[in-house]
Structure formats: structure tokens, C-alpha cells
Amino acid sequence: MNLKLRALTKSIWVFHAACSPCNNCDIEILDLITPRYDVERFGIVLVGSVRHADVLLVTGVPNYKTKERLKKLYSQAPQPCLVVAVGNCACARVMFKDSYNSPCAVDEVVPVSVYIPGCPPKPEAMIAGVVKLIQKVRGKK
Amino acid sequence: MRILFNYLIFPGFLFSACIGLIAGWIDRKVTARIQWRVGPPWYQNFVDIVKLLGKETIIPEGSAKRTFLLSPFLGLLSASLVATILGVTVRLPLESFAGDLIVVLYLLVIPAIAIIIGASSSRNPLASIGASREMKLVLGYELPFILSIIAVIIKSAGAIQIGSILNHQINFGSNLVSWSGILAFIVTILCMQAKLCLVPFDMSEAEQEIMAGVFIEYSGLPLAIFKLTKAVLLYTMPLFLIILFWGSNLTPLALIGKYTALLVIIILIKNTNPRLRIDQALRFFWGPVTILAAIAVVLAILGY
């Protein structure tokens, strides 16, 4: 596995793309950078601009407005960029499947690499998801 | 040939970038420890740069392409040149030319100008807010910085060659141990915090407020060059201050100790202060800090 991807797995810059969720998953994501779980020791940093992002963390069900913006955000992130869907709503829309407000699921808008289910997912589950993401990047490419 | 070696390898770009990246790691680790976290491993900053080199470079549509791509290199080249001049002066004080203090002062402004030009050429309104804040910040801290350097020049019997200032301190003791020297040193520490764009003066690059302000449109190689410029400045600015104020004993061990002490001061100020607004920062620099620097100049003239 080449140097580019090895460096990518050791220094992941995360952009938080919240498609109007209920914010429970966002609180649990912010839990990861508190001292109890501290993902900065793995090199994971929250960045402010999408052009600095390696991973797009998508939460919430896309509605008509955020669908367009999510597509734009994914095209604005420099490749190689991975998408992680956090929470039940981002993974499969669960109870909002037949809602008038949600046209499609997240993986019909952007290609998702890792799904982290849960409502909201515990920080341990999110760390396990990050580990699966790193293993996927190392194993496949 | 020797000039190329000095500029590119030691004490120029490669050496100062490595020391600067490790100093940046010390900053992140100490900050993490203060917050009861663990913090990243020692190679984290190097891995960040390598990863950025492997990312795609996106040029925003409608931006000034050549300026957008070339302005990071402007900052890096001048910062490495300052590192070279200072590094050569520490080993052989009088090999440089008279007036190189003024050249170094001009060269130290260029990284800020490179950030401003780069942000303005990226056709993003948030970047232009960051650029205007950076412009005002440079106007703010350059005045007391130059005043305190004038105090040092007066104390060194009118010498404007860095090597002469160094020799004067070796003969007569550090500039730090006099009243005007300690005041000017405090002023330059505050101006250094602003020049390095560290909290409380990082309003041009605020992550959460204006989405990384000046660097919002940068990705891939240009962003890596900007981060390297910051690392080289993190090595160069404390070294400049040590040579001007604390230069009585510059053996390698003493130099490492003094550099670590200044790094500790920077990290302490960084971790105990919130971010200021740009008008608060300007009022701070043109008010109390300039008055302190003016008092330092007057005391230097009077001989204290």
C-alpha cells in the first residue's frame, strides 16, 4: 500500500456535514474529541473548511435542500475523500423512509464508505467504525 | 554551492522545517496534556504534511490562478531565507553585511503578505474577511515590534548588524537583564504571538468562526506549503528574539534551553487566553503595548 494512503490513515481530517439532523449524533461526534475518548491521538482533527477534509461525516436525513448541498460538498472535497454515514437516519432513513420531506437516502447522493448505525451511536461504536474505515483503506487499495 | 547548502539544508529550509514541525508537535502535546487528553504522537505533523502532498489541488473557478498557486511559495522562500541568515549568524557572527537586521525585518513581513495575497486571490468572501483581519493585525503589531528593535539598536551602541548586536551581548551581558531590555522583550513576545497567528491573535484563521478564513480555498500542495511556512516561522521567530535579547551565551545546549523556554511561554499564552476580536487586538497593540515599547526606547536612550 503506497505512502499516500498510509499517510491518509494516520492523519484523518474530518468535516462535519450535518444535513439537518436532530443533533443527537452531532453531540456524540463531539464527544469523541473530549478527554474521555480523545481521537486526536490518532491524528483525527475537526477542520473548518471542506477543502481540508479527508472524511465527510454525514448525519441526518437529506431533505430537498440539503441533498443539493451535500452533492456540492462532496464535489468540493479534494480526492481521496471518504464519506461516513453516522446514525440510523443517515444510514437508512428508518422512520423517515416514506416522509414527504426526504427524497432519497444518503448513499443515493454520495458514495458512502462506512455506515455507523445507532440512534445515536455510542462513541465506542464510532471509534469501531473509524477502525473499520482505516482497515478498508489499507486492505483494498 | 555552500550557499545552496546553507539555504536548502542547514540551517535553511530542511532543518528549520523539521525543528518547526517538532516544535508544533510539542505545542499540540502540551495543549492536549493541559486538557487531560493524550495528544498525537511525535510524527503527527510530518504525516500531516505527507498526507497533504497526496491530496488533489483544487483551484476555485474565477480565482487568479497563478497568484493563488504561487503565493504560498513566496512565504516559504522568505521564511527559509530568514532562518538561513539567523542560523549562519549564530555560528559566525560577523560574516554577514551591515544592515541585515533591516533586511530580516522586511523578510519577516513577507509571509503575512503572502497569506493576504493568497486569500484575496481565492475569490471567497470569508477568505477576504480573513485577509482584512490579517492586514489590520500586521499594522497593529509591526509598530511596537519595530520600536522595541530600535531599543535594542540603541542599547547595542547603534549597531544594525545582527552579528554586532550578538557580539555586544557576549561582551556586555544579555540585553534582557536591563530595564529597557526586559520591557522590550515582553513587547516582542506579544508581537511574536501575533506574527505566528496563535491564540489570542489567530482571528484571521479562525476555524469555527469563518471556516478557516484565509486558508478556506486551499487544499493539497499549496496548503502543505502554508503549513510548512508556519513551522519555519515557529522556529525562526523565537530564535530571532533569543539572538536580539538573550544572546550572551549561544552554545548549542544553552540555545536549546532558551528556545524551549520561549516555546513554553508561547504555549502558556496560547492555552490560557480566548481569541480576541480584531478591534480589541488593534486597541491592545496601539495602546498599552506601544506605550511599553516607547518607555523601553526612552529608557534605552537614558542608558538603563
List the helices and strands and how they pair.
The complex is a heterodimer of chains A (141) and B (304).
Chain A: H1 3-10, E1 13-18, H2 24-31, E2 45-46, E3 55-59, H3 64-76, E4 82-86, H4 88-92, E5 114-116, H5 123-140
Parallel strand pairs in A: 1-2, 1-3, 3-4, 4-5
Chain B: H1 2-8, H2 13-34, H3 44-53, H4 65-91, H5 100-120, H6 125-155, H7 162-172, H8 179-195, H9 221-245, H10 252-271, H11 278-302
Helix pairs in contact in B: 2-9, 2-10, 3-9, 4-5, 4-9, 5-6, 6-8, 6-11, 8-9, 8-11
Question: What distance lies between the first and last C-alpha atoms of chain B, to the nearest angstrom?
Answer: 45 Å
- The radius of gyration over CA of chain B amounts to 19 Å
Question: Main β-sheet of chain B, in a few words?
Answer: none
The helix content of chain B, as a percent range, equals over 70%
Q: Low-confidence runs of chain A (pLDDT<50, min 5 residues)?
A: none
Beta strand count of chain B:
0
The termini of chain A sit apart by 6 Å
Which spans of chain B have pLDDT < 50 for at least 5 consecutive residues? none
Largest sheet of chain A: 5 strands, parallel
The largest interface is:
A-B, 24 and 32 residues
Enumerate how many helices of chain B there are, as a single number: 11
- Coarse shape of chain A: globular
